[in-house]
Write a structure and sequence with these properties.
The chain is α/β, with parallel strands linked by helices. It is built from eleven helices and twelve strands.
């Protein structure tokens, strides 16, 4: 008689595990703030900090020493304006951070490519009469991408969910000679409440409205597959599903249908729920994060962007 429990004994359980979560799968996000000189605590994300340009090399060096292979950079500029000009300034915060990391580490440097942290209104594109302008934003995203590549970014990751952003970015990179710079597209990015803590971390809240007009409806499944297919057709080398844990069905379908390198972003709300509950003694932090990350990997993620990468590395 078949007994499934035979293979669940200590030792045997690990031998027959179907999913192997590894440090090489993980990407650590870093917020770099142009206005500070020392790390600043992010209240909504226990254990996380904004870094300054001065503190960034030490933080990145620690991540590299721990064996974390890659970082995803978000910038907080000293000034914002209506068109997010700081996003494509050659002396902008991200451009400076990229150059610094490439000079001091061998980390793979991925740059988030969006305008929301740089615009005074907090939206991901240009605005007219409180409407986000899709096509008018595309050339600016191309400028941002080329400025990141010029600074030395290994991968650019557009996250604004503008239609045809991948095509515009690929064209701009190719024209400027950055034909080898890969694009990791936030292809299936949902309008999620789980982004809440990030808005404090990156100061990317919006002055009016919301982002439901360009980010996906959580009720939709087939739409995500169209988004991914279009981005691949336009030149995306890798795609992302965001958030991760509430959208494992999307992640599995994307990986099964397209087979391209696929990332999942364990976003700020996913992180903070576990971290805050652990602070209260309601959850075992280590066990909860390991379970969540393993489930994300099991569902099809080749790469997982997680704020817990450093803690995972310390377990290795």
């Amino acid at each position: 008689m078949r007994r499934m429990r035979r293979l669940r004994a200590l030792g045997i359980r690990e031998m027959v595990a179907e999913t192997d979560l590894s440090l090489k799968d993980l990407i650590q996000p870093i917020f770099v703030d142009e206005r500070i000189s020392v790390p600043r605590k992010i209240e909504a994300m226990p254990g996380q900090f904004r870094q300054s340009l001065e503190s960034l090399p030490a933080e990145a060096g620690l991540l590299e020493d721990l064996g974390i292979p890659a970082v995803l950079l978000f910038g907080l500029p000293a000034q914002k304006d209506e068109v997010g000009s700081g996003a494509y300034d050659s002396q902008g915060i991200i451009q400076k951070a990229v150059r610094l990391l490439k000079e001091t580490t061998n980390l793979v440097v991925i740059t988030d490519l969006c305008l929301c942290e740089y615009t005074s209104h907090g939206h991901c594109g240009l605005i007219k009469n409180e409407k986000v302008l899709n096509d008018e934003t595309l050339p600016i995203l191309g400028e941002v991408a080329t400025s990141h590549a010029e600074a030395g970014a290994d991968i650019v990751a557009p996250s604004g969910m503008m239609d045809h952003m991948v095509s515009a970015i690929r064209s701009a990179l190719d024209v400027e000679g950055y034909t080898d710079t890969p694009i990791l597209s936030y292809a299936a990015k949902y309008a999620s409440t789980f982004y809440g803590p990030f808005r404090e971390a990156a100061e990317s809240g919006f002055a009016f409205g919301d982002r439901k007009g360009y980010q996906m409806n959580p009720a939709n499944f087939a739409e995500a597959l169209w988004e991914v297919q279009l981005d691949i057709e336009e030149g995306a080398d890798m795609v992302m599903v965001k958030p991760a844990l509430p959208y494992l069905d999307i992640l599995r379908a994307v990986k099964d249908m397209f087979g391209v390198p696929t990332a999942a972003y364990q976003v700020s709300g996913e992180y903070s729920m576990i971290a805050a509950a652990a602070e209260k003694g309601w959850l075992d932090e280590r066990a909860a994060f390991l379970e969540a990350l393993t489930c994300i990997k099991r569902a099809g993620a080749d790469m997982i962007i997680t704020y817990w990468a450093k803690e995972f590395a310390k377990l290795e």
